[in-house]
Amino acid sequence: MSDVVRDLFDAIVSGDRDLVLSKVADALSDGLAPTLILDDGMIAAMAEVGDRFERGEFYIPEMLIASRAMQAGLATLKPHLIDANVESIGTVVAGTVRGDMHDIGKNLVVAMLKGAGFEIVDLGVDVAADDFIEAVRSRPVDLVALSAMLTTTMPQMERTIRALEAAGARDGLKVMVGGAPVSKAYAKQIGADGYAPDASRAVALARSLIE
Ligand code: B1M
After folding, report:
1. What does the pLDDT look like over 18-62, one tens digit per residue?
2. pLDDT tens readout for residues 51-90
3. What CA–CA distance (Å, rounded) separates 168 from 156?
4. Dihedral of the alpha carbons of 82, 207, 145, 93, in degrees to the nearest 10
5. Burial bucket for residue 156 (CB in 10 Å: 0-12, 13-18, 19+)
6. Model pLDDT, residue 108
7. Which one of 149, 176, 184 would you pick to mutate in the ligand 1 pocket, going by the greatest count of ligand atoms within 8 A of its CB?
């Protein structure tokens, strides 16, 4: 790992927002690939934060401060990760499911889908099944993208899919799922059309589902 990426990693773990911003700028001006900055510097740092939380070395405030530093860095990195001005290839309604407040991963998926030319309706976090139903009824939608980061909120994905079916809104509508605890097998089990483990594979999956 290069020094600047290591510094960026440390700055996110310690939640130093200003240092994160300057390290992202340094890494970009050093010519490092945006995906490398994201994967090795930023996503790896959030995994470290999660590990420290699990070991009881970090508490919620540290996790929150690190996530704010991460979001600030992401805002700088985003334009470099995505190709702008691509023609719309489909509409996606995205959200983190009911009871779940995690949105960094969902925001990355949304940014990459936008960059790939999808029109996005981002419902945010803690989204109830009824809100997904309302969103797909109020406009033509090709795909619903559900994110969950907690084992306790994963069942909300299934609940949302069943609710879409019960509301008669599932015909011709694809559903994809993702988030750290989610797997391909779980996606299949709950009747989703696909699962992606990360944002770039989410774009490939969305394209293939809409084709
Ligand atoms: Co929380 N948290 N958290 N947290 N948090 C985790 C998820 C946890 C694994 C930490 C740990 O214990 N190691 C753990 C979950 C354990 C479990 O369920 N088995 C946990 C817990 C327990 C909790 C609380 C319950 C803690 C508490 O209150 N006691 C609480 C729950 C609150 C709630 O949601 N109701 C909580 C709260 C929080 C904060 C608010 C402090 C903060 C979130 C801030 C925010 O998102 N705005 C937070 C954070 C930051 C984390 C960790 C540290 C980092 C998550 C993250 O942003 N990762 C996380 C530990 C970890 O992940 N190792 C943890 C970076 C992000 C880029 O990755 O989100 O995985 P990720 O997204 C990836 C892929 O998953 C995928 O693509 C993304 C980009 O590559 N992906 C998709 C995501 N969605 C997708 C959708 C797709 C396709 C791909 O298609 C639709």
Report:
1. 999 999 999 999 999 999 999 999 999 998 998 999 999 999 899
2. 999 999 999 899 999 989 999 999 999 888 875 455 678 9
3. 18
4. 80
5. buried
6. 87
7. 149
